[in-house]
Amino acid sequence: MTKLNDLINWFENKSGVIIALSGGVDSALVAYAAYQKLGISAIAVTADYKTLSQEELETAKQICKEIGISQILLDYNELENQEFVKNDSNRCFHCRLELATHLVNLAKKHNIDFIVDGTNLDDLGDYRPGLKALKQNGIRSPLVENNLTKNEIREMAKSVGLSVYNKPSNSCLASRIPWGQKITFERLLRIEYGETIVKQTTKLKQVRVRDLKGIAKLEVEKEKIFVLRDDKIFEEISKKLKLIGFSDVIIDPEGYKPGKINVIAD
Q1: How far apart are CA 203 and CA 207, in angstroms?
Q2: Contact status, residue 138 vs residue 40, Cβ threshold 8 Å
Q3: Within this chain, do residues 7 and 99 fall inside the same structural domain, yes or no?
Q4: CA separation for the pair 226, 103 (Å, rounded)
Q5: Would 201 be classed as within a structural domain?
Q6: Could you give the count of Cα atoms lying within 13 Å of 226 in the half-sphere of its Cβ?
Q7: Strand order from edge to edge, sheet including 248-251
Q8: What's the CATH code of the domain at 231?
Q9: Bridge-partner residues for 115, per DSSP?
Q10: Which domain holds residue 101?
């Protein structure tokens, strides 16, 4: 695969690199490529900032085991950042700015000059203020620099045996709360539990539980909405979601769409 070789060779002549690794396929492929070229001089760093689901955290650990790359866990609490907690349209900027600061400090500690992330070409078409925060801190995106799209990344990840090659895209739990509504630990916890409940009950993989002032709005892929509309399944989900603190449960008839909640008024 020429493009895969190009990605691996992108890391040539770099003495060491830190990869900001989430639980997704994009940063997994970057970590794989870096490790192929640099071996132990490539370090994966996963931020456990309390808005990442436990599922994503465990997946990130699994990815590192599959690749053989060493992993450092950054442990800090985004909920202590008031600019983040107030949850305005710049939430992602403040999130990534804090992450970038931790990554830059860690790189200095390990005498590493390069920090990279898993941003891909398709990401550039979305509203992602967080990318600006990373870029202004010198964090580079080898997938973008190699003109790689999400589909190409999935194909490459599959070809090298990464188990996350077909993993649905995900984002931090805070993205389930509309702008203008405050982010709290309790809301994040019930969102995480809620999504686990829906996934276990329906066996669907792409699931969002949006928290609209305590109402759980369920989003799944449009062609799979019929699963939620089964009376028995919906009744079971509703009962469990209300037990963990949601006041009501509704189904989004339009289905899952990334970033949809950003335009919902508070």
Answers
A1: 10
A2: no
A3: yes
A4: 43
A5: yes
A6: 2
A7: 207-212, 215-220, 248-251
A8: 3.30.70
A9: 18
A10: 2-159
Q: Render the burial of 74-108: b for 16+ CB within 10 Å, e for the rest.
A: eeeebbebeebeebeebbbbbbbbbbbebbeebbe
**What is the CA 145 to chain-centroid distance, rounded?**
20
Q: Please indicate, yes or no, whether residues 181 and 154 belong to a single structural domain of this protein.
A: no
pLDDT tens string, the chain, 266 residues long: the values are 699 999 999 999 999 999 999 989 999 999 999 999 999 999 999 999 888 888 899 999 999 999 999 999 999 999 999 999 999 999 999 998 999 999 999 999 999 999 999 999 888 766 677 777 788 888 999 999 999 999 999 999 999 999 999 998 888 899 999 999 999 999 999 999 999 999 999 999 999 999 999 999 999 999 999 999 999 999 999 999 999 999 999 999 999 987 655 544 33
Specify whether 185 is located in the same domain as 92: no
Pair 215, 155 in one domain:
no
DSSP SS3 for 45: strand
How many CB atoms lie under 10 A from the CB of residue 116?
Answer: 27
- Distance, in Å, from the CA atom of 98 to the CA atom of 84, rounded to the nearest integer, reads 9
**Other C-beta atoms lying within 10 Å of the C-beta of residue 16:** 17
Amino acid at 264: I
| Residue 232 forms part of a structural domain | yes
Q: How many domains does the chain have?
A: 2
Q: How far is the C-alpha of 34 from the C-alpha of 52, rounded, in Å?
A: 24
Determine if residue 68 is left, alpha or beta; phi over 0 gives left, psi from -120 to 50 gives alpha, anything else beta.
left
- Listed residue (169, 181, 206, 186) closest to 262, CA to CA: 181
